[in-house]
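Backbones bend. We report:
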Amino acid sequence: MIAEELVIACCTDLAGKVRGKAFPATQFDKRTKRGIGWTPTNVQITCFDTIAESPFGSLGDLVLIPDEKARVRVQLGGDVPTEHFALGDIRHTDGRPWEFCTRSILRDALERLDRVAGLKLFGAFEHEFQFRNGAVVIGEAYSVNGFRAERRLAETLVAAMREAGLEPDTFMKEFGAGQYEVTMGPSRGIAIADQSTILRELVRLVANASGKEVTFTPIRDPDAVGNGVHIHLSFLSGDKPATWDQNGKHELSKKAGQFVAGILKYLDSIIAITAPSVVSYLRLTPHRWSAAFNNLGFRDREASVRICPVSDLSDIAKASQFNFEFRAADATASPHLQLAAIVHAGVQGIEEDLPTPEATTEDLSLLDASALAARGYVRLPKSLPEALDRLSASPTVVGWFPARFVEIYAKHKKGEMAFLEGKNQKEICSLYERVY
């Protein structure tokens, strides 16, 4: 019997997981109009497959509508089934966007950016991941031999990315044991988060097809390096770059500087969204090349926001190269929610006419709390409960999102934490490694 191809309509959720429902590919056009059935309480499924406290119970009906623009069909060949899925939007049955649809929440943030500043977002996510199975090899950080060990996977992944409509950029052996980094070219608007989601799924697809397991967990072991998500961002005004100004402070345009200032002002209140797991806060500590303070850094890989270098040797104009990088993030989050929180914070900075921040060039962990406060810096939350408290305590941040979103989000994360009660740090790391 010949198998009939199925396509999965899917979305990212509050746990940063990609969930969905499959249907015959021949029905795709019809499903872009009527969608497939979805359940409100699905939003409270945690990463550990428990259900957090839900206001919806068993009630309600929604539809998940696949988007042709976020459709992926990849054929690896051999005995591997065709990979076919499409990200989409969750809507009420009358067509209204559902308040807890991560893609719709991002769309609202991007519309606010356009309305307030006349800007479009341009950017890309970088991902780090590790192989879970196989012997741990030392001495291969950044090495050619380390790359060689996964050349076949890397080249298959690059081909899959091209087939899915992503622009491959780099692949490298990273510092950690069995750790690699994959990057891609930039895209616009909602596609930035869509393509981040697609890339993660393609990495898993290619790894599984070759008998390997990968994890994007923020940290596998409390004493080891972590896996970050680095979000590179810039702006377009029309089709022209609008981030660089040779006369601006740190060469940031006025609006770009205000946007960065907004991110830093509200960072301690949004980090529960950008780094939303218990183990995220083992990684967000000084001297891990992650982020521990709300600072802007000039080419500093320990800053929460980093101004990235440009090359005078490039054939790409400086204005088109120039971007900044958000580093207080990891892959336990929905890319759509991460980007929405960052955009809202940045736009708030534009609306408040905040000045472009100073860029640090020192180790902020050496300063005490009073010295940090005198310079406008704060230590970011050191735990998920603390991060959730700061999120819920900010009326400004709560107001960016649909009614009750922050309340439901906090309940979701508390349900996740409840699953971990009584477990030690290594057990908790192991659980996150398995689910991400």
Q: What stands out?
A: The radius of gyration is 21 Å.
